[in-house]
Amino acid sequence: MAISKILCIGSCGSGYPGKHLRQALDYITAPEKTGNGEWVAALNCQKDDVYGQMRRTKAAFGKLDKRQGYHLIISFVEGEVDAGTAFEIIGKFADEYLAKDFEALYAVHDNTEHIHGHVVFNSVSFRDGRKYRYEKGDWAEKIQPVVNRLCGEYGLSTIDISPDMEKKPEKYKEWNDSINGSFLWKDMIKRDIDACILQSPSYESFLSMLSGLGYAVKNAYERDGKYLSIKPAGMARFKRCKSLGADYTRERIRERILTENLSQYRPESNPAPKIMWCRVKRCRRTKMSGIQKRYFARLYRTGLLKKRPYSQAWKYLDDIRMMKKLQEDYLFLNKYHINSTADLSDAADSMRGRKKEASHKRRQACKERARFRPLFDAADEMRELQECENCYSRGGTLFEPEHQRWQELNRMLSGEGYTPERMESLRQHFDTMVAAAGREERKAACEERTAARILKECMADSALRKKEERSEAAPHQEMGGTAWHDRSLRGALSDSESPDGRNERTARHDRLFHDALYDSRPSDNRKKQDKGKEASECRREMR
Fold first, then answer.
1. DSSP state of 288
2. DSSP letters spanning 133-164
3. What is the pLDDT of residues 327-338, one digit of tens each?
4. Helix (H, G, I), strand (E, B), or coil: what is residue 3?
5. 73, 72, 89: which is closest to 155 by C-alpha?
6. Quick check: 37 and 82 in contact, CB under 8 A?
7. Are 507 and 514 in contact (CB under 8 A)?
8. What is the pTM (predicted TM-score) of this model?
9. How many whole angstroms separate alpha carbon 521 and alpha carbon 487?
10. How far apart, in Å, are the Cα atoms of 400 and each of 84, 274, 394, 409?
């Protein structure tokens, strides 16, 4: 399986516009990435002077500025292809897609776990001087289909390009916006507008109430601009209200102010209270381990943001992201009953094994599906010719060629023991297997990253605690040496005093006092309290 993407190489200014193009060419031909230059080739130009020829083509047509070139990247699944096969596929792709119109340099990088290829081509055609233009949808209609067909010829798995591919980026955009906080902005603005509409008797009071909440308003009236736009505090740009939905245009807001009020949301009558009986099954809560307690405490402390005003949620985006991460970590620790770093390391190894197993299953399913690719294509062609076959069966001799082709395809499927309906169910079976294995692989990879992140944080916390303990132990050792020196000095002085024993008793009390003061350790609270009591008794005797 190979997936492709295309990037535009822009200009670097009037002084050296082709700098980025030159850097891209140097990058893809690096000897340490291409087997010492073995997997490098050129198309429609000389390999040793690619940039010079591209620049001369631009100069000949007077197009030295703006877009300088394009960079195509084609990545293969790890372990599915070797560098030689990938080089052949990349070469055929460049020769077919660029169609003898553009100078190009392509290479295969084999220095990573997954082999991938690069194609850098000129933005100006050397034949007619036209510039390459990438249109929306070209990837699904022109680029990836060629990659899929070439992979199928070499028995590799392919990527399904469904008709709903254009709708998938929208789902990703919504998810990405929710992660980055844009979705919070939209939800918060709609709530504030709804609240102001319910409480405002007129459009002017609605604008005043929005300003009181900290919103900046632009194009409030038709004479000011076409679209009503607002910007809450902390947001970088104004947002058009019409982008929030059909109920948030300027005209619709005026209508809602006249028709909506708080009375519509209040119950007309208060129902009589009722006592509801239910049976509650109480379960004894299991004890948490040290790691689980630490992450639960972090999650609880971060959860205090729920008490903060909703309209100021933009201030707490980092806290929201942190709470989501901590919640994910805590659920992971409870799910796999992790009680120590050893359990965490074992879980990470288990997730890694699950990921490899799911990846192997997915590749096997893709290979099995690739073996049936000719039969799938025949069934698809039969489906397209079915209407012509129906017309021919009703006497339409005009469809004789289509009828013969349909009969040929039907004989091919029958010879293999399949029917078009059977091929469709078989296709769905393979698609289900690949999708399930892909979901399992992504889930295992996500949990593996979670385990690695938690393990890294635990190791960092452990190292920090050891460092703090060493830093705390050093001053106590120095203070203990000073106390020993003071005790020795007092002992010598007490021996030289009068023999009545008074000074000797005083020295003994001083020793006990200094022992209690300096020899205590913060790690043993009970000993510290006992020695503190001894010191207090010594002071009372001395008085």
1. P
2. -PPTTHIIIIIHHHHHHHHHHTT-------GG
3. 888 888 888 888
4. strand
5. 89
6. no
7. no
8. 0.40
9. 19
10. 45, 79, 12, 14
